[in-house]
C-alpha cells in the first residue's frame, strides 16, 4: 500500500477511479464527475496539476495535491491535501479530503489511507494540526480519524471538526519506513 502523486504515467488507472467518484459523497466532491477519458487527459489532469502550484485556482481555493492510494496493482482511493488553510477551510473541509472506493471499504484500509495522508500533510502544511471535517452520518470515516489520534475540536449539527497533531520529523521518518 502506498500513496502516489497524480501523474500522467498512471492516467488510465487514475481516470477509472476518478470517473466513478460521485459529485458529492459524504462531503467529498468531484466537480469533474462523469467526464470522458479524453477530457480527463486533455483538460482535468493538467488543471489539477496546475492547482498544486497555485496556478488557475478558482476563487477561494488554495493549492492542493492529489494522491492516489494503491493497494497491490489497483487504485483504491484518492486523497487531496490542501497546502494551507484559508478562512473557508478552517471551519470547512480542512487540509485533507479522501475517498475510498466501495470495493475496498470495511477492510481497515481507510485507516491506512488516512494515516499515509497525515504523513504527507505533515510535510506540506504550515499549521501545527491537521484539520479535518466529517459528516456525523459517516461513522466509518470518523472512526478512522479517531483511530489515528484525531480528536473532536468542535461540532455543529451535521459535522465533527477533527484535529490531528502534525507529526514530527522523527515520527514521520519512522512511519515512512514502516510503509516502504
Verbal overview:
With 180 residues, the chain is α+β, with helices and mostly antiparallel strands. The chain has one domain (2-179): Aminopeptidase (3-Layer(aba) Sandwich), CATH 3.40.630. 37% of the residues lie in helices and 27% in strands. It has 6 helices and 9 strands. The strands form 3 sheets. The chain has a 4-stranded antiparallel sheet, sandwiched between helices. Strands 7-9-8 form a 3-stranded antiparallel sheet, with helices on one face. Strand 4 (64-71) and strand 5 (74-82) form a beta hairpin. It is globular and about 40 Å long. The termini are close together. The mean pLDDT is 90.
In short:
Helices cover 37% and strands 27% of the residues. It has helices spanning 11-20, 37-52, 87-90, 109-124, 139-147, 169-179; strands spanning 2-5, 24-25, 28-29, 64-71, 74-82, 96-100, 129-135, 151-155, 159-165.
Element layout with pairings:
Blueprint: E1 2-5, H1 11-20, E2 24-25, E3 28-29, H2 37-52, E4 64-71, E5 74-82, H3 87-90, E6 96-100, H4 109-124, E7 129-135, H5 139-147, E8 151-155, E9 159-165, H6 169-179
Antiparallel strand pairs: 1-4, 2-3, 4-5, 5-6, 7-9, 8-9
On the 0 to 100 scale, the average pLDDT is 90
Helical content class? 25-40%
The quaternary state of the protein chains shown equals: single chain
Strand order of the largest sheet: 1-4-5-6
Distance between the termini: 9 Å
Which parts are unreliable, with pLDDT below 50 for 5 consecutive residues or more?
none
Report the principal-axis shape. Answer: globular
Total DSSP E strands: 9
Amino acid at each position: 500500500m502506498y500513496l502516489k502523486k497524480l501523474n500522467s504515467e498512471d492516467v488510465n488507472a487514475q481516470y477509472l477511479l476518478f470517473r466513478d467518484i460521485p459529485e458529492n459523497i459524504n462531503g467529498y466532491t468531484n466537480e469533474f464527475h462523469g467526464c470522458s477519458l479524453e477530457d480527463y487527459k486533455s483538460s482535468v489532469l493538467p488543471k489539477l496539476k496546475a492547482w498544486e502550484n497555485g496556478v488557475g485556482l478558482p476563487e477561494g481555493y488554495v493549492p492542493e495535491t492529489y494522491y492516489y492510494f494503491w493497494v497491490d496493482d489497483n487504485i483504491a482511493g484518492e486523497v487531496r491535501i490542501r497546502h494551507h488553510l484559508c478562512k473557508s477551510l478552517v471551519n470547512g473541509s480542512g487540509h485533507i479530503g479522501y475517498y475510498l472506493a466501495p470495493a475496498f471499504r470495511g477492510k481497515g484500509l481507510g485507516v491506512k489511507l488516512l494515516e499515509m495522508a497525515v504523513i504527507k500533510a505533515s510535510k506540506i502544511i504550515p499549521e501545527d494540526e491537521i484539520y479535518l471535517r466529517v459528516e456525523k452520518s459517516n461513522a466509518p470515516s470518523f472512526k478512522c480519524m479517531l483511530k489515528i489520534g484525531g480528536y473532536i475540536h468542535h461540532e455543529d449539527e451535521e459535522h465533527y471538526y477533527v484535529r490531528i497533531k502534525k507529526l514530527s520529523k522523527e515520527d514521520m521518518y519512522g512511519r515512512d519506513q514502516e510503509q516502504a
